[in-house]
Structure formats: structure tokens, C-alpha cells
């Protein structure tokens, strides 16, 4: 019996060992499978966060490739947020801005006409009154020669044609309009010939509003569905380049730029090359206008123009003048016109000056038309110059 009991104990012991080992083996293989499953689990993070959620229980779900981790990389890389698409403005059309800006022009310029009409409507137009009329015109920056001409013509006509209020207004309007010269061609040459882009070079002293004007012209062109590239050749001041880049972003226009201090001519060259390559309609080139001396300016602008013309002819050279600077502006205008062939004038800040007479003076001085006027700091506050509307604004 004792011998039998020993056998039973031995068999039971062996069975126990077998059961324990089996359980251990089973759980080992289970752990390995779990381990395998971990390896094929989709990685968290990465581009998957942008993809639709994946159903891992599906048999046909593709297994993700093993993730490789750079030694220094964070364990769970954070996906940077996708950059928001920049908002693109819809610039105001030229027609709509004209209506809006006419009122602003009347507000800033109307005093001249009102003053003149009050003087011309006096019962007796004696010498003192004519002197006051002269002073009023000179104060509005019309310039000496045009003032004398205008006074002569008014004297003659009012003596002959009568001096009722309606007559006086009509005569004054006609004579002012003649001085502003409605016959000048004020169209902007923004298109090139033979498939070349139009090249508009914008010059003027710093602070006159050049960069702002380049941005505003880009908006006018974009509102007419023209394709534009801008060249930030004012490499002297990094902020000017940044400023232009912001204008470009707002209307989805590429801005060609170089590091601060780059040769402006190389930026201008690159801008025109890019414009040609992309087949755009117009390239606008902003320049630096340090007026430290005429020779330096001549060197710089002359080179910019020469280099551009290796690629395409310059179709328009716009001189930007600040209307509030009066006679100083005239001196600048003279210097620039000796350095480059100015083909049009942009008169900025007319909203902040009652001296609209500068239009007459500068056109006379340079023999080129005012083509655009700046009437505020708003993005669409630039309007094509219209002689008739301007004269009406002068009369208030
Ligand atoms: N009120 C008014 N301000 C204007 C007008 N045009 C430009 N300005 C302002 O004039 C200032 C100078 O303009 P900018 O375009 O920086 O002048 P800039 O000639 O390019 O000068 P740099 O960038 O230094 O070369 C800015 O504050 C403009 O907002 C305008 O028509 N009316």
C-alpha cells in the first residue's frame, strides 16, 4: 500500500509540473503576440492626425511602417499646425474708389476755390482784391508763373464777360481746368510689348510714400485681374522690404527681395526675370531714395534702370512726391527728373494738405502729368488723377 501511495504522489506531482509549465508556455506566447501587436499599432502623432481615423479591427487595415526615432528626437513628435492660408483681400475697383475719394478731395482742396470765389464775387475788383487773389493762389502752391497767368486771364475775362456769381464760377473753373491741363495723357504704361511685362519703376525720397504707393498700385492692377510681381529694391531699409512683403501677401502678389544691403540693381533684375518667367503683366519696382547727393542717386537709379533693361524696357517711371512738402517737393522733383526720365507723378498725402496747387506747379516744372493721387493711408486710397474732378474739388 505504501509503495502504491508513493506512485500516486509521484504521478500527481508530475501532472502538476506539466500543468504549470503549460500555463507558463501559453502565457509566454500570448505576451509575444501582444508585443507583435504593439509593433504594428499605428503611430500616434505624425501625419496620421490629419488623416481620417483608422479602424484597426478591420482585417484589411494596412499596417503602418515601423517608426524610426532619431536619437535626439522627442518621443512623441508634435505635429506643427498646418499654416493657415493667408487671407487675400479683394481690392476696391477703380470706379468705386474714384467716387469715394472725390469727396475726400473736395474736403481737403475746397478751401482754395471758396476763397477765390469770395474774392472774385466782391462788388469792386480793385488792385487790393487782385493782390489777395494772387496771394491765395501762391499759398496753394500753384507757383509764381501760373499764378500770374491765371490772374491776367481772369482780369480780362471778367471785364469782358461780366461778374455775376454764376459767370465767375464758370470762368474760374474753365481757367483752373486749363492750368491743370486735361489734355495730358495720364494712362499708366503697365503693359509691355512683344509679350514682355510692363516695368514700372517707382522713385522718390524716403517717406514720400513710395512703398505704400507700390502696394496700392498692385491692388489697382489686381482689381483689374492683372498678374503682378513686385521687386523690393529699396534694400537700404529692411522695414521697407517687410512692408512691401505685407502688401504683396494681402493681394497674393509675389515680392522678390534680397537680404538687407543687397545691391538694389540685382533685386530689380531678379524681379523682372521672375516676372518674365511667370509671364505676368506688370512688375513694380520699389527703390530707395536717399537724396544724400545727386551723384550717388544718379549712380544707383541709373544702374537699376540699366540692369532692368537687360531684361525688358522700363515702361513707366513714376516719381512719388509728398504734397505736404510744398517747395521742397519741387526741389526733389527737379533732382529726380535729372537722374531718370520721369514719365508720371504720383502726388501723395493730398488728404493732409490744402495745397493742391502743387499739381499745376509740378506738371509745369517737369512737363509730365500727375497720374495718380494718394488720398489717405487706407489700402485703396489711391486714385487715378482726373483733371475735371480735381478742378471741381478745388471749387468745393
Ligand atoms: N495721409 C496719407 N498718408 C500716406 C499717403 N501715402 C503714404 N502715406 C503714409 O506715408 C508714410 C510713409 O510712406 P512709405 O510708403 O513708407 O514711404 P516711402 O517713400 O516708401 O519711404 P521708405 O519706405 O522709407 O522708402 C506712411 O505712414 C504711409 O502710410 C497718402 O496718400 N495719405
From TrEMBL:
Residues 369-382 form the SRP54-type proteins GTP-binding domain. InterPro entries: AAA+_ATPase, P-loop_NTPase, Signal_recog_particl_SRP54_hlx, SR_rcpt_FtsY, SRP/SRP_N, SRP54_GTPase_dom, SRP54_N_sf. It is a peripheral membrane protein. It catalyses: GTP + H2O = GDP + phosphate + H(+). It is found in: Cell membrane; Cytoplasm. Part of the signal recognition particle protein translocation system, which is composed of SRP and FtsY. This is Signal recognition particle receptor FtsY. It comes from Nocardioides lentus.
Amino acid at each position: 500500500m505504501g509503495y502504491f501511495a508513493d506512485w500516486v504522489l509521484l504521478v500527481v506531482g508530475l501532472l502538476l509540473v506539466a500543468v504549470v509549465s503549460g500555463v507558463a508556455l501559453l502565457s509566454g506566447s500570448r505576451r509575444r503576440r501582444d508585443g507583435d501587436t504593439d509593433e504594428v499599432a499605428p503611430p500616434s502623432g505624425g501625419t496620421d492626425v490629419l488623416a481620417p481615423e483608422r479602424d484597426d479591427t478591420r482585417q484589411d487595415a494596412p499596417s503602418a511602417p515601423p517608426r524610426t526615432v532619431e536619437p535626439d528626437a522627442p518621443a512623441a513628435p508634435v505635429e506643427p499646425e498646418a499654416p493657415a492660408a493667408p487671407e487675400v483681400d479683394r481690392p476696391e475697383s477703380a470706379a468705386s474708389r474714384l467716387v469715394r475719394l472725390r469727396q475726400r478731395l473736395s474736403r481737403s482742396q475746397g478751401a482754395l476755390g471758396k476763397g477765390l470765389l469770395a474774392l472774385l464775387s466782391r462788388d469792386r475788383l480793385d488792385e487790393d482784391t487782385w493782390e489777395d487773389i494772387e496771394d491765395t493762389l501762391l499759398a496753394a502752391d500753384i507757383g509764381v508763373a501760373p499764378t500770374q497767368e491765371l490772374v491776367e486771364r481772369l482780369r480780362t475775362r471778367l471785364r469782358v464777360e461780366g461778374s455775376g456769381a454764376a459767370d465767375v464760377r464758370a470762368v474760374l473753373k474753365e481757367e483752373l481746368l486749363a492750368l491743370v491741363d486735361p489734355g495730358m495723357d495720364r494712362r499708366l504704361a503697365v503693359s509691355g510689348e512683344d509679350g514682355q511685362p510692363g516695368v514700372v519703376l517707382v522713385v522718390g525720397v524716403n517717406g514720400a510714400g513710395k512703398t505704400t504707393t507700390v502696394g496700392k498700385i498692385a491692388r489697382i492692377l489686381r482689381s483689374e485681374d492683372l498678374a503682378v510681381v513686385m521687386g523690393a529694391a529699396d534694400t537700404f531699409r529692411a522695414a521697407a522690404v517687410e512692408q512691401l512683403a505685407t502688401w504683396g501677401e494681402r493681394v497674393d502678389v509675389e515680392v522678390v527681395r534680397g537680404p538687407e544691403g543687397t545691391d538694389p540693381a540685382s533685386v530689380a533684375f531678379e524681379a523682372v526675370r521672375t516676372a518674365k518667367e511667370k509671364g505676368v503683366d506688370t512688375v513694380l519696382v520699389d527703390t530707395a531714395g536717399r537724396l544724400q547727393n545727386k551723384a550717388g542717386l544718379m549712380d544707383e537709379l541709373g544702374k537699376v534702370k540699366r540692369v532692368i533693361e537687360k531684361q525688358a524696357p522700363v515702361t513707366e517711371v513714376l516719381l512719388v512726391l509728398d504734397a505736404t512738402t510744398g517747395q521742397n517737393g519741387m526741389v526733389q522733383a527737379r533732382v529726380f527728373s535729372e537722374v531718370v526720365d520721369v514719365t508720371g507723378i504720383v502726388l501723395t498725402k493730398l488728404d493732409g494738405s490744402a495745397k493742391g496747387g502743387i499739381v499745376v506747379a509740378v506738371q509745369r516744372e517737369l512737363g509730365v502729368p500727375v497720374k495718380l493721387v494718394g488720398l489717405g493711408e487706407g489700402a485703396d486710397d489711391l486714385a487715378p488723377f482726373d483733371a475735371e474732378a480735381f478742378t471741381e474739388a478745388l471749387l468745393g
